[in-house]
Amino acid sequence: MKANIHSIETMGLFDGPGIRTVIFFQGCSLRCKYCHNPDTWTTKQNVLHSIESLMALVMPYKNYYEASGGGVTLSGGEPLLQSDFITEFAKALKKEGIHVALDTSGIGMNNKNYETLLNFVDLVLLDIKHYSKKGFHDMTGRDNSNLYSFIKDLNNSDAKVWVRNVIVETINDSEEYIEKFKKFTDQIKNIDKIELLPFHKMCNSKYDALDYSFPLSNYNETSQEKIEFLEEKLKNII
Question: Where are the domains of the chain?
Fold first, then answer.
């Protein structure tokens, strides 16, 4: 069994707790307007790795994981598109006592059950694109029905959850949006925290290199002041 891997980041600090190895799986069916990794979209073969080869890359950092409370993060692209592989990989990591985080939109394959996978996942970084069906489609170009199936499987697991939402000015930066977004997240169990992330345009060069048009090129980056304002509103919603 092998997986299509886009890239691997060692000593990562932003994709889960502690020091982490972040493995970016190739392929994603969403076309998020703010995506900063358009080079991960295609499912064409990039670099193939076996579980054994990935474990060989991960194990030298085990002491760093243990000392910092870190581990391995499965990211993308969308790792759920290679769910059979990541299930076996997560199982191998857990046998070594390594913390496993899954960075996902919750949009994988149709009619796929993820309960077995989530048995071997400690933390899910769940990227909510939009709380509504229409808003989700406008932001990603795809239906969000698979997300509800993933949330059901997630709620049947013991995995902790960090909910993430990218904030784009004039699209989802209103108090009304935050209130409805919070109501949407109430259906998700075991949430440790909710992160509002600022939209940025550091990905422009990637779009240029791929000869893609960046849908939000004319939008302003989200200010830290706006994020802090919305975070305060989020805290005050009962």
Answer: 2-236
